[in-house]
Amino acid sequence: MKAAHMVAAVVLATTAVSGYPTLQAQSALPRDVHPDTRNRLPPLKPDELNAQMRKAYDAAVASSPGGKPEGVVAIRLHRSGVDVRWDAAIGRRLSELAILTIAREYDQPYEWSLHEMEALSVGLEPAIADVVRHRRPVTGLGDKEAAIIQLGREIGRHRVSSETYARVLKLFGKTDMVDMVDLMSNYAGTGVNLTAANQWMPPQMKQFLPLPFTMPTDILPDSRSRIPVVNPARPAQPNAGGEGANAGLYRRTLAPAPTGPGSMAKFAAGLKSLEASQGKALIALAALITARLHDQQYDWTMTELAARRDGLSAATIDVVRSNTPPTSLSAKEAALIQFGRELLATHNVTAETYARAKATFGQQDLSDFVVNVMAPHTREDVILNVFDQQLPAGQPPLLPMRD
């Protein structure tokens, strides 16, 4: 196991109550992890914070049990504060390349196809798009282009090496790198929403991404997805695509209403509604599924601790941890695990699995599981993996990691 991907140094010890080996942490940190933040970023200095970020910092301190920002919240404080979709300092050409790389890694055809059109319109060379599309070697590309593609590919493998991290940091600097990773994480979450909805392109638009699967045909003719159009008579809203503030001619997305990543959210009611309907334990299960399928130690361990307090059984947790069949679990747990595994591992939820999940939870709660749990945790897991967030000192890791 490489040092950059150790969660401290891990040793197997006694057997836990559930029958799964307990993992214990030693004190050593990877060489590129800062001891104060326990990730690859240094602590923020007061003079680095503008007024906007100072407000975010103070809010993070107030909400943190430890009295300081931690994890994803702390990492995001290193952003510039601009709208990374449109105004990132790296420019639209490289921003669209970053989005394309994530769409490729999540096998997301709608996201890819629309952003390929955008990328070419802002100057990305077709040959570079083809390198990403066909997963060709990055030799011969510019340093920045090659670094973005390599970073995206390692995000797809859930492990960003020290070498790749250092290369990207040197080329872009800390703030622009954090902005770029934030952008990539946002589109990872967007891809999850699109895949859950099985969003097809409109019939007059071409799908440009070769896929390792055949997309299910359980779509509705008007939305071209599994999600009904809420109010067909209502004019499309400017932000129907769900991709940030699109006011102004140069901030309009290409997503034609009523299609797009916002379709799953049309039936979502929020976490409070989901908790009242399904309970905290199932929400924690959805988060654990997401962490497991992103090989994300920090998210898994911190979520498992909360999940046990919220009543999720050790047996259910171990089924997710060990990727074993959920045949012994309740109908709700089994349906959610199968749905999550197809969504996040194969990037293709079959018609049968979607129908089962919808019948089990209803469209509103299923939308909430995706929009308010799995997609946000996907965004966070991408950030945590890139910056190699380690567990708090003294906290044993609870997720076995691949070599």
Structure in words:
The protein is 49% helix and 3% strand. With 403 residues, it is mainly alpha-helical. Strands 1-2 form a two-stranded antiparallel ribbon. A hairpin with a 5-residue loop joins strand 1 (10-15) and strand 2. Helix 3 packs antiparallel against helix 4 and helix 7 (162-172) packs across helix 8 (174-197). The longest helix has 36 residues, at 351-386. The protein is globular. Residues 1-22 and 233-246 have low confidence and may be disordered.
Mean pLDDT: 89
| CATH architecture assignment of the largest domain | Up-down Bundle
Major pleated sheet: 2 strands, antiparallel
Count of alpha/pi helices: 14
The order of strands across the largest sheet is: 1-2
- Runs in which pLDDT lies below 50 for 5 or more consecutive residues are 1-22, 233-246
CATH topology of the largest domain: AhpD-like
Which class do the helix and strand fractions yield? mainly alpha
Morphology call = globular
From the alpha-carbon coordinates, what is the Rg to the nearest angstrom?
A: 21 Å
Helix content bin: 40-55%
Q: Tell me the domain tally.
A: 3
CATH superfamily placement of the largest domain: AhpD-like
Query: N- to C-terminal separation?
Result: 5 Å
| SSE order, one letter for each helix or strand | EEHHHHHHHHHHHHHH
The counted number of beta strands is 2
CATH class descriptor name of the largest domain: Mainly Alpha
Descriptive labels:
403 residues; two-stranded antiparallel sheet; single chain; 49% helix; 3 domains; AhpD-like; 3% strand; 14 helices; mainly alpha
